[in-house]
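Q: Hi! First time doing this. I have a protein sequence and I read that you can turn it into a structure. Is that right? Here it is:
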Amino acid sequence: MLNLRVIILVFSLTVSENFAKYAVLRINDGLIKGSTLTDIDGKFFFSFQSIPFAKPPIGKLRFKDPKPVEKWNGILDATKEAPICFQKILLLNEDFYGQEDCLYLNVYTPNLRPKSLLPVLVFIHGGSFIEGSGSYSSYGPEFIVSKNVILVTLNYRLGMLGFTSFNNPKVDVPGNAGLKDQTAALRWIQANIRYFGGNPNLVTISGESAGSVSVHLHVLSPLSNGLFKRGIMQSSSALAAWCNGEINNGVSSAKFLGFEGNDQLSMLEYLQNADLDQLKAASENTTFLVKINTPARFSPVVEYKSKKAFLTDDPSNILRRGNFNRDVELMMGMTNSEGMVLDAVLILLNGLFEPWPTNDFIPHYFNATSNEKIEIEKKLDDYYNTHDSNPDNHIALQTDSYFTFPIYEALFAHLNYNQDIFLYLFASTSELNTLKNSNNITRNYNGACHTDDLWYFYTHLETPPSAFANGSIENMAIRNSVSLLTNFVKFGKPTLPGDPVQWEKVRKRSIKYLKIDLNQNYVGEMFFEERMDFWCKLHEEYNLQHFCPLM
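A: Yes, that's right. Below is the predicted 3D structure, encoded as structure tokens:
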């Protein structure tokens, strides 16, 4: 029955005498027409873009949980890029782009009729829950599909449209609509991926930055239980201070736009009827350069208790109770100079870098008094020697406060339940490091910047030709990185028997990690250990709960 789902193969001699230029495929919701592309090795694969996985979240569905997509008649054209979700893009003069009708995903498969169903990698984009998309031009599949893995990328609602909340069950907008969009996509994958040659029992979800937070939250959420087998967390966790949203922000948004009164059902109707210019105004002060010294405006929130809730408690409490999907196998890690992102972005915006005050790197959950903030700021300045002109110092502070400590906290929390975890540190630098190389200042910094690792796994508009040149350092680095990732997707183990360097699972008393450096891999023990010891002791000193082991 499965093979009958491939309805038509239209052959074209302009592509190959033995390969289809287009494929028309029947899935649960109707017929779709895909196209063909070539991977890094020149092999053909099928591309299906702009597949709707939920109803358009417009009108009375604005801010609401996603609804199942309706079946369509005729053949859906899945050969073109989907629209991005409505968003403000910082590096494009903070202009707004995209549209509300944006809940689409892309499926890239090397084989529609494999002898055995293929493993599936689902990638969730980052962007601080404010920006980004799963578009082909942002995250191309040419590297991943070459390893006989299906890649799925997706859009989800962002900013105000994805993370408006009312703390009132009668309004039925509890927040986290963007995360529920992701869950809806995972359900769609379970129902349809077989038609693309994929194994619904062998799904790995991955994400970077806000996408990594999303992956972690799916591990913790009862709504996503059973929808995937493995998770890859690149550069963040749900314990990061920058991903705590404002509960009941629907009220403040309505008031900002001029609503008078206190009836929240009327507020919702008012916001659902607001035009895009009004949404722009209500989103004006949001940016993907989120601070950690104050909660974000539009970001994940704890919802009131409901069977439909994605998140009903703080992630740290869920981890302490152990009430989550503990069978998920995890890979987690970061680049070795994540905090360079602040320098790079501010240089791109302003032409120079002015360091943020140290006070900005005190997480808001410290709830510190004015005197305590002065004390903590001095401790941070002294430890990281931020007054020195060496950029490594302030970048280390930026890296640890935003990324390293939240990742280690997640690692320590999950180790309490003996989960299978592989830890990595990504250190590759080459012409693929797009953000690091975006200006003449950070280009000369040490290490790999936040987001730089992505371009060793996915193509994008600025992928250099050397990525496809056999024997180039970029090409060799891509093949090394992609092999590690896809081995985990396929087998739950990044290195295979016979590999010269074996990547071991983390143990409570042995925090082994793999350092990935171009086409070389090295095994180490707990990266940035002294710096993490400092943060653990800082939390201990101010009586803050943490997952650090006795250091």
